[in-house]
Amino acid sequence: MNRLFQAIVRRPFVFFLIPLLIYMLNFREISNRGDTVPTVFTALSLLWDGDIFLGEIRDYVPYERLPYFLSERRGHLLSNYPILPGILSAPVFLPGVLFDWIRPDLPDACWRFFSKCAGSLYTALSVLMLFLTLRRLTTSAGAMVLSMAYAFGTACWPISSQALWQHGPSGFLWMVSLYALVRVSASPPRLGETQRGLNGLLFLAGFAAGLAVGCRLINLAAFAVVAVGVLFQWKGRGIVYFLAGLLPPVLLLVAYNFYYFGTWDGGLSQVLELRESLDGETGGVWDTPLLVGITGNLVSPSRGLFVFSPFLLFSVAGIAELWKNRETRVSLLGISMWAPLVLLLIFSKYTVWWGGNAHYGPRYQIEMLPVLMLLLGVGWKRFSAKRWLLVVFCVLLACSIFIQWVGAYCHPSEWAMDPVPIFEDKSRLWDWCDNQVVRCLQSGVKPRVF
Asked: Is 448 domain-assigned?
């Protein structure tokens, strides 16, 4: 058994291949039939015409009025969502275009299959990058367990891996950036050649962070916190290399948004304006009482992060480890651990803090997972050394994996709309007897589509 364990740990590719295969095993794409559509057709348009304009989408998604995920700008149809995930995923769709498997006369399951492939690919790659990062922070056993926990005990399974959401490419780029930063932290420079290599890693970390912002604009707030950690750990020279990588993708994104939408946040402003028709919300964008949003995002029975992934409670052990002394408190990880809190505060103030009606569990919190997993890695030795704590962790992890399996195989259900839509009666988000997990489980395993 020990020999098998060592063989697995020495072959990191396993931590990509196993998640990828399991993500694909339910043989269906799971999305809200809206948010992922323009991302898919951005990739297809790039392959068909060499541009990002979505005129062809009408042949595949018939509509009378312009749907919420599209805008007509400068004579072209554009996605209201970030286009970078589609651009990065174009190679995945290449076989479908080359072999003419994606045509208007064929079922939409054809292009949805490639959407599923893209989501699964990027999410599996993020698992691999997490494993490579955790190996530098904790034991081999801890890296293996926590990587699989991330893969199957979080929303990565029922959401990120099941369609071309923004979260798949975003999570992968988060992991690339954190891997590069942790690698620099673990390798203090000694020679000039080494220093150049570490500067390159800082640039790579910044560039991946910039691309992650291009995939999901909210990442900018979190990476601003990470940048402070870089500044504290490597002073002026380090932050210069990090920002040299970060700023070009961010500035390109802002230029694109201003050119086509006239605002720095681009099509996001268009989506926010539609929240009344989409989610029944009126008033300001940031009107949710902070306490309501925080408790909802963390412990709502149908949206709470710690309800769907209770093993993440053990990230507190990593926080305690980092706060033991001032040196680790102001290190890269010691400062970066505040990034999930910043994201939580932003999402908690958002008027639609639950993230809409169509997805399973805590979708908005997916961008918090990379840092939370690293905190688990930092605290692994602390809680795994105590048998009773390790048993509790394993029980919570088993519950998390089961809950995510329900989402991957039994979602969707009628819960969001029955007996009344949740945006009409938000108290349903706090119903422990009739919550999303229970309703999906009652609805049974959904049939395969592919």
From this structure: no
